[in-house]
Amino acid sequence: MKITKDLYQGSLALLTDFYQLTMAYAYWKSGKAEQEAVFNLFFRKHPFQSGFTIAAGLEYVVDFCNNFYFKDDDLSYLGQMKNADGSPVFESTFLAYLKSLNFTCDIDAVEEGTVVFPHTPLISVKGPLIQCQLLETALLNIINFQTLIATKSARVVLAAKGDSVLEFGLRRAQGIDGALAASRASYIGGCAATSNVMAGKLFGIPVSGTHAHSWIMSFDSELEAFKAYADAFPEKCVFLVDTYDTVAGIKNAIEVGKILREKGKEMLGVRIDSGDLAYFSNIAREMLDEAGFQDAQVVASNDLDEHIITSLKIQEASVSVWGVGTKLVTAYDQPALGAVYKLAAIKNQNGVWEPKVKVSQQSIKTNIPGKHQVSRFLKNGRAVADMIFLKEYMEGKTSTTIIDPIDPTKRKRINFEDFEEINLLKPIFRKGTQVYDCLKIDAIKQNAQDNLMYFDKTHKRLTNPHVYPVGLEESLYQLRTALVFKMKNYDK
């Protein structure tokens, strides 16, 4: 599926910050445009104070890179830009360079649905400096949002404890793009279906929905509305029962349910969208059971999230399907993931790779140098630690120590023979050619569920989760420390 082709009719090369283009121009002017570099995309803290994060958005990234080029009207727009003195911002020869620019980068990435942790690369890009730089903004835009929403969805689904969760957020989402990406990411995180029909068409996600209060209000009575809906959709009757009076609405739903049964059909359930959901869901369950509709489901909606669902579970609410909208697709309690994209290595004029580090007064903002791989160590089917490392330092090693990048007192010894080892970063592009087949949406969703099974329930707690160990391989930790000392002139 060609996302940008379907939605945007071609390249999105101008979906970038202006300073990416000014840097690109300056690279070109200084002769550095084709100098090879490595950039890593990662985040520093889990969203929602979670103990895990679900990677999402790679298919968008693949499609963006496959369609990365500057169109004639893009270059015309850039050519019209003027400096304060009236001179062109960009020389015509630079615009001609952009016109001939072909995507030639290598990209490695974790697969969508992978459980990931702070500081580990979700994407690593190697290629000409100018190309790496021009990819930054779009890659961050894609990965930040979809990873955020997939993680929120996974948390909501965990709170539901096996009940179905439906994503109902289209009308409250942050624009058309946000709605589509949120529906996709919500499904990856574990939602069973979406109300978003376009997302269903584009991504192959099951769609779900029945009727709103306006349907009821358009008739003279609620009972008449339910009967008319049952005539139209006898196979898909979930009646919204709280337009006027919830208990009366349940009675009317049961009456129409009996009419359906006489015709050989079954009412699927009732939906409650307001009021005391714990109280009314239990009333609904009792009334449905007494009327012989034990299989009819009670669906709840109304500004739900993982915390409200957890509360309703504690109250023993009789809800079996949860419709979650606004607080899911807008990531209501944390509006951004905060992933960053940092230069990690550059090839000098002698063809030697030089690791690069950004030094900060805040240790959490000091990046990790080099082109990394990430290993996940499993024992008896459970994840025990993740290790960020440089391949060139691992030859011949049978064991190592991983060191927390923020708190070096947190260390873990790893004997490789004691664990199953999985490399998380997969080849996606080589010299600009796609070498990875993107997973189908259902496979991505299953990947997320399988990944979560690797982790102890303490890591998946919704509040105060146990911290999963992630560290730098000791040689990489020593390299970063030495570079920091060098950049701060501690060695002088």
Automatic annotation (TrEMBL):
Transmembrane segments: none annotated. InterPro entries: Aldolase_TIM (IPR013785), N/Namide_PRibTrfase (IPR041525), NAPRTase_C (IPR041619), NAPRTase_N (IPR040727), Nic_PRibTrfase-Fam (IPR007229), Nic_PRibTrfase_pncB (IPR006405), Nicotinate_pribotase-like_C (IPR036068). Its EC number is 6.3.4.21. Pathway: Cofactor biosynthesis; NAD(+) biosynthesis; nicotinate D-ribonucleotide from nicotinate: step 1/1. The keyword Phosphoprotein applies. GO terms for cellular component: cytosol. One of its GO terms (molecular function) is nicotinate phosphoribosyltransferase activity. The keyword Phosphoprotein applies. It catalyses: 5-phospho-alpha-D-ribose 1-diphosphate + nicotinate + ATP + H2O = nicotinate beta-D-ribonucleotide + ADP + phosphate + diphosphate. GO terms for biological process: NAD+ biosynthetic process via the salvage pathway. Residues 14-144 form the Nicotinate phosphoribosyltransferase N-terminal domain. Residues 167-367 form the Nicotinate/nicotinamide phosphoribosyltransferase domain. PANTHER family: NICOTINATE PHOSPHORIBOSYLTRANSFERASE. Catalyzes the first step in the biosynthesis of NAD from nicotinic acid, the ATP-dependent synthesis of beta-nicotinate D-ribonucleotide from nicotinate and 5-phospho-D-ribose 1-phosphate. This is Nicotinate phosphoribosyltransferase.
